[in-house]
Amino acid sequence: MNILDCDGVLHPKAIEGLKLFNQKKFFETHEELEDAWRDETGEIRKLYQGILQIAVAYLHITRGNYPGALKVYERGMKWLTPWPDLCRGVDVGQLKKDANKVIVEVKRLGAENIGRFNPMLFQPVQWNEKKIWICDKCGSEMHEKSCKVSCPNCGNRFDCSDLNIYFD
Ligand SMILES: [Zn+2]
After folding, report:
1. Separation of 72 CA from ligand 1 center, angstroms?
2. Which of 26, 33, 129, 137 pairs as cysteine with 17 (C-beta 3.0–4.6 A)?
3. Ligand 1 centroid – CA 20 distance (Å)
């Protein structure tokens, strides 16, 4: 794995997958991330595989499959562990912490009581999408540097912290 793989943008299918993950549609998450994984030839496909496996572990929990959840969680963590906490705008560090909390709770409940797992514990993945800014005054593509967005054509500018770039 090369740290530079964390530069750049997410595959569009991976973005779809993350949105579905955050809607707790874990089966559909898995399908989108699998497409991203298949399309991608670079190392970043391993990150997609890791998030995919966490989604499948969560799916197993919702279906009451205790051994399946633990097995796929372990597999997912193997894929996620090598990556830095922030990669392509995805907060991988937080995802690992959240998934760990989920599994600690699943183990506490045990196979008998997995049906009582509280789905509120499925936390969303935090990420921000690198985006292309188009000037609302003249339609030119704007430049962004450290959250300062400016238009090379008309001088229009704003601070991206004025906008909510995180998805709920
Ligand atoms: Zn402009």
Report:
1. 49
2. 33
3. 34
Question: Quick one: the chain helix, strand, coil %, rounded to 5?
Answer: 55, 10, 35
Instruction: Compute, in angstroms, the gap from residue 161 CA to the centroid of ligand 1.
Output: 19
Consecutive 10-residue averages of pLDDT for the chain (168 residues): 74 94 97 96 94 98 98 97 91 96 98 97 87 82 80 88 51
Query: How would CATH label the architecture of 3-121?
Result: Orthogonal Bundle (1.10)
Nearest-CA neighbor of 14 among 43, 41, 42, 47?
47
Token pair 């894929």 in the structure block, residue: 79
Between the CA of 44 and the centroid of ligand 1 the distance, in Å, is 35
What's the gap in Å between 11 CA and the centre of ligand 1?
A: 28
Shortest CA distance to 95 belongs to which of 119, 110, 73? 73
Output the pTM of the full model: 0.77
Q: Which residues surround ligand 1, an ion (CB under 5 A)?
A: 135, 137-138, 140, 151, 153-154, 156
Residue 120: per-residue pLDDT? 94
